[in-house]
């Protein structure tokens, strides 16, 4: 299905929950899906005011949308979130697990609280959001689609981020396991993941580091949040794709930094 041609149910557009969608990549994913005809549940925890403003912007653009607050480290709040969204829209067709936290974790500074925080948000929340959203999808003949947002660095780890990378590194295995478990309950439920490369560099990053990030890709450009959003839509709307972990990184995970010259190495 192409952009703007997703399934409808009668004349009712499908519903997508995008966690962490008040800002950054999650917001771009939600905006992209809204432009493609989805009704949007905007989720935030601490950024509820921004989530409400974004939902109002979507409404002005003709999208049915509403903002919902939940602390995803609290399973009871996740269950309430799913119930509220289902009550408000009447169904749940898509869950994009975009909410995430990220900070350096040098081993000599690493604390138990750091590890717990990273795994609670980046790993356990994904599992709990998925299993409770799936309870609603199981009830639907049309099932649903879940897309998890992991990270390219789980393949090529970056120094001083071991705890963060471990928390994201669990997602491909979780994605494949959920795809199997949920298909057994309803074959129309699919679970996939996107592994984004660097798509939002810090505003104060040096020109040298920016160029290094470009040079590390095969396509010789920085990624954009829209690149991730397009991949998410593909995984949502491709009915024969499940259990897939798709790198969206400009080839960075396979590129060693220089091109192989067979005439030299022959």
UniProtKB/TrEMBL annotation:
Coiled coil: none annotated. Keywords: Oxidoreductase. It comes from the Bacteria. GO terms for molecular function: oxidoreductase activity. Belongs to the short-chain dehydrogenases/reductases (SDR) family. This is Oxidoreductase. It comes from Blastopirellula marina.
